[in-house]
Sequence to fold (192 residues):
Amino acid sequence: GYGIKVSLQSGGGNVVYFDFNKDHIHLFRTEVQATGLAGSNPTSGTDIENGLYMNGTDRTDIHIAYCWIHSVNRDGVVAIGFNGSPGLLFEHNRVERSGGHADQSVHGQGMDFGTNSANAGVTIRYSKFVDILGSANIAFLGGTTNTDIKIYGNIFWSTDRAAYNSSPGVIWTRSGTPNVTVNGFYVYNNTF
Fold:
């Protein structure tokens, strides 16, 4: 895709979905917008929104650049299963106003690497994460194995710390069972 806007017309679902284990996908200059509705508490499961959803086990050459992903009540970006050089190149993007589902058990992240996935050759650079509410701006969830991960040149900020905060951290590798494994995890030259 290039220079398009994709939006949800009603609450729930993935705004953009890359099918399981598809490679060589490049998404440039695209606005990805959900409804921004908070959803219900407790959730029905049908009101959870993700901006960009990429599921797989062995993806290569996924390039996301110059996109604006915003107004999502769970995860701005769900990234699962990359293996390669590059596996995922995520650059010059803006992820804004993700998280904040009414049901707190449906906590969100700006970007998450899904539970029990293997991720290698991932670069997140020159992007902005703005007003993220939930566990982290970038989260590596339980059971993930992460190799050669580079996070640099990004800007992380909150326009209202009372309304938008990440806990336990801005960039987080989940602790506890199932464990997160990292080998070559580089975070440098970012602005927090």
